[in-house]
Amino acid sequence: MFKWDTLIINATIATMEEGSLAYGMIEKGALGILNGRIEWLGTTAGIKNSIETLAKELIDAEGCLLTPGLIDCHTHLVFGGNRADEFEQRLNGVDYQEIARNGGGILSTVRATREASFDELYQQSLPRFQALISEGVTTVEIKSGYGLDFESELKMLQVAKKLGDEHGIQVKTTLLAAHAVPPEYKDNADGYVDVICTEIIPKIAGLNIADCVDAFCEGIGFSYEQTKRVFDAAARWGLPVKLHADQLSDLNGAALVAEYAGLSADHVEYTSLKSVKAMAKAGTVAVLLPYAFYVLKETKLPPIEAFRKHNVPIAISTDCNPGTAPSSSLLTTMNKACVAFSLTPEEVLTGVTRNAALALGIEDEVGSIEFGKKADLVLWNIKHPADLCYWQGLNRVQRIFK
Ligand code: NIG
Ligand code: FE
């Protein structure tokens, strides 16, 4: 009888476990997997018995890096159509918010998403999903928010679930019905918020198909008061919340989501020190989205120093969406987080593993390599974790364990 299903030896293990060691590193590490769980973790020298007899499969990593599976904790990767035309308009001087106010932006993707059948939406979203997971992403959060009515929001969430199921990838779904005001409610945002609170949230909660509720609290989205109503409805239905907060202006969104003990406040470029303190108190994660920052040519940096000072956990994500973050590469985003936000490679790797798990409320299962957690791992063809953030355009995934 073998003790483990798989034994990995001679790996440079970035456990990402919290503690004093950089990256929670174990040099020449060994890891035993049984029934999909981490059942042994230590150094290769620490294994006493003859190694060949211990596991069905023995992998000699030859010094290569082993990390937790990467987690992309904020994506809009299920959507119909394409907005390359708006990308071009923006480069010809038209501003993102102006495009939105003229019925483009999110609403142009809403039209294409509503028109797409379930299968069309699945087929259009599939390459983006596959690109993400080919880079070692083993958990993906996917939001609705381009349907803006019950049926279309449900269709998006069902496509998201199917992507996960078909690929053996953990997908966490988020209801983002409060992403924009749909054309049928033009000039009646409060009427649409009523529909979200009395119809969409209750029905989605009843179907148990969303793990969380999100909103876009912004001048071109929903006000503080409207967001509060959405959060109250989420609370009534037992759903945790997160928020697109303070992306283009400071509406106290991060403080609001903290008030509801939300999982995360995302974007947060314009977040005030007061809101940072509220997040720290509530344990709300700051999800930074450097790709959207870069595409919008934003100049206002998130209050990173304040997050560090007040121990607000920082996560990093692609924001994969057709408007502000046309990218399905988490590795590229990680590089941007280093260069544009001056985060260290260790902060960034923490941001796509341990802290991204926190932002999704799944930190007990994934996000670090620890005894008893899921054997959700990536073996890379590199020796040092900083290399993940450093070089662009090479995918060094050697093997994914899920
Ligand atoms: O995270 N800020 C709102 N939502 C997306 C953009 C959506 C879009 O432009 O389609 C974001 O940046
Ligand atoms: Fe987003």
Describe the 3D structure.
- It is globular, with a radius of gyration of 21 Å.
- By secondary structure, it is α/β, with parallel strands linked by helices.
- Helix 6 runs parallel beside helix 7 and helix 8 (253-259) runs parallel beside helix 9.
- Helix 9 links the parallel strand 11 (264-267) and strand 12.
- It folds into two domains: 4-68 and 367-401, Roll (Urease, subunit C, domain 1), CATH 2.30.40; 70-360, TIM Barrel (Alpha-Beta Barrel), CATH 3.20.20.140.
- The mean pLDDT is 97.
- It has helices spanning 84-91, 96-101, 106-115, 118-134, 150-167, 189-207, 224-236, 253-259, 273-282, 290-295, 304-309, 330-341, 345-351, 354-360, 386-390, and strands spanning 4-14, 25-34, 37-43, 55-60, 65-68, 70-72, 137-143, 170-178, 212-217, 242-245, 264-267, 285-288, 314-316, 377-380, 397-401.
What's the CATH H-level homologous superfamily of the largest domain?
Answer: Metal-dependent hydrolases
State the strand order across the main sheet: 6-7-8-9-10-11-12-13
Shape: globular
Examine the secondary-structure arrangement and name the CATH architecture of the largest domain. Answer: Alpha-Beta Barrel
Number of strands: 15
Tell me the Rg in angstroms. 21 Å
Q: In the CATH scheme, what's the topology name of the largest domain?
A: TIM Barrel
- The whole-number mean of residue pLDDT values reads 97
Index terms:
15 helices; 7-stranded mixed sheet; binds N-(iminomethyl)-L-glutamic acid; TIM Barrel; 22% strand; 8-stranded parallel sheet; alpha/beta; 402 residues; binds fe (iii) ion
